[in-house]
Amino acid sequence: MAEFLKIEQRGAVCICTISAPKTLNALNSTILGELNDFLDTLDTHTTRCLILTGDGEKSFVAGADISEMAHLNEEEGFAFGQRGADVFRRIETLPIPVIAAVNGFALGGGCELAMACDIRLCSDNARFGQPEVGLGIIPGFSGTWRLARMVGMGMAKQLIFSGKPIRADEALRIGLVNAVYSQADLMNEAIALADSIAANAPLAVAAAKECINEEYDLPADEAIRYENELFGECFATEDQKNGMKAFLNKEKAVFEGK
Ligand code: CO8
């Protein structure tokens, strides 16, 4: 039983809430371990979309736990960074989409966690930032890499060098989040989006996620071939037969992920 994670299953949508209220949901190594264990047990056949959020109305995740990091030596710092980076990479490469519902502070490791998700929605009180250099470290859960890819080098450098947080509307403007909602609406909007994703053909959604992730760094011709391969593979699925048959019969398709 996880101490810091609350898991709620709503049909094909799973909601994982990080809950460490005393530290505004800051990530310690126990939470990273629990996230890893949760991903081990998550059934990505029955769950077709995952939502990650933070407990309370103030914070998504206020970073890595500074009280735990304060006493680390170089070797331990490397190991802690690697532990977080590995969990975040697992989230990024999960065969189902992951939505970050950012309900407040997403600072340091919290911003990095949100960036490892496929889609970011946030509440209007959200704050995003990479304040690490003010603590004598750099983003260590792959934030230098993901932020530059997400918002471009110039803006990533400004955010990381200054350490200054930005508000939800600025995060929306620079493309760090897809949409901003009131705190009251955020979860309902995240669930509605997750439900609409979960209603689609899961093998096709997984293939689309894999294509977008893998093709990003490939030369054009290789990327186009990559998509072509996975496009072809879709025609070996029952979902493709069912989806197209349902369209032609003017029915709603029900996908079994086969
Ligand atoms: N770690 C540990 N405790 C935290 C953290 C954190 N990241 N954030 C908040 N807390 C604790 C506070 O210490 C406080 O505890 P207490 O009640 O015992 O004093 C409690 O949460 C509530 O926080 P505040 O009283 O500060 O609440 P405010 O509303 O005044 O401020 C802030 C909220 C602005 C979020 C403020 O708490 C803050 O600045 N927090 C730190 C944010 C930060 O710097 N995050 C980045 C951390 S570094 C990081 O994430 C690196 C990731 C890569 C690691 C690689 C490892 C090698």
Can you offer a commentary on this structure?
It is a single chain. Strands 1-2-3-5-7-10 form a six-stranded mixed β-sheet, sandwiched between helices. It has a four-stranded mixed β-sheet with strand order 4-6-8-9. Helix 1 runs parallel beside helix 3, helix 5 crosses helix 6 and helix 9 runs antiparallel to helix 10 (about 220-235). It has eleven helices and ten strands. It has two domains: about 5-200, Alpha-Beta Complex (2-enoyl-CoA Hydratase, Chain A, domain 1); about 200-250, Orthogonal Bundle (Lyase 2-enoyl-coa Hydratase, Chain  A, domain 2), CATH 1.10.12. The mean pLDDT is about 95. The protein has helices at about 30-40, 65-70, 75-95, 110-115, 145-150, 155-160, 170-175, 185-200, 200-215, 220-235, 240-250; strands spanning about 5-10, 15-20, 50-55, 60, 100, 105, 120-125, 125-130, 165, 180. The longest helix has 20 residues, at about 75-95. It is an alpha/beta fold. It is globular, with a radius of gyration of 19 Å. Octanoyl-coenzyme A binds near residues 63, 77 and 140.
